[in-house]
Amino acid sequence: MSVFLTSVSSVVVIVLIMALGYLLKKFNWVGDSFGSEISSIITKIALPASIFTAVMKNLTRSSLISLSTELVFPVLGVVIGYLIAWLMVKVFKIKRGRRGIFINAFVNANTIFIGMPLNMALFGDKAMSYFLIYYIVNTVSTWAFGVFLIQNDDPTVDKSAQQQQHKINWQKILPMPLVGFIVAIVWMLLNIPVPNFLGQTLNYVGSLVTPLSLIYIGIVLYNAGLKNFHFERDSVLALIGRFIISPLILIILIKTGASSGFSMPSLMSQTLVVQSATPMLAVLPILANESHGDVKYATDVVVMSTVLFIVVVPILMTILQFI
Known about the structure:
76% of the residues lie in helices and 0% in strands. It has 16 helices and no strands. The two termini are 21 Å apart.
């Protein structure tokens, strides 16, 4: 029951903030340009700050070194996930503007807002080091590769003309959230103390990510109309990838490692599997909007995965007892 209540409480918070965005738009308390404006604030300022503070709070040089050998399982899981998601895009002929969204929905998880508090509630502080393993891999996967897939799937860009351009777009190669992560890792490795005023500033700015992202989703839901919110083939495929295939990949990898003599603590295996099945990135609709992708589709899969998460976690925890 505690697992179920933890899942419910996490989702209720998310739904209430999305409802706020819906009502803000419904009563015209925000303008039509508000969505695009906050998307820039989140991707260029708030997300880098959030990632920097998360790394500085949760990682040290010693923990990073000690966790390095255990990164192989989530890394392999992510790589295999990308390959399967890419094959599904080809097999099911997912249209342009949705492909990058679909692959990210399949592979990358909302580890910070949902994954970390849920992990703390389920396993406590003793599992934090195991959570960090997945967090590192998920962060690098999202901002070093996942965001590139969405940007490269921009339906408004002429591919043939794009290939003829030889000018390097560093903003796309190094998105600001990835820059924030790289700066944080270098800062940590050099053991440079973060001044109190700077730490507090980054913490406040970084805390804007989740509420603004969820408010944006609520605005998109209002613009799209709740009557148009429904399960369609591409959405169902993304949900299957996130909640079934993604954790199944990690379970198979862990069982294979165990049969090969690599003994993994049960708490670590449970943490990794649960994190692999957390809902999709809350910023997915914003990333889609930045690259002129299918924002409605991105919003649908984020909302669906968040709501269904209530059911998924208790089932997954039950299954893990037999692994």
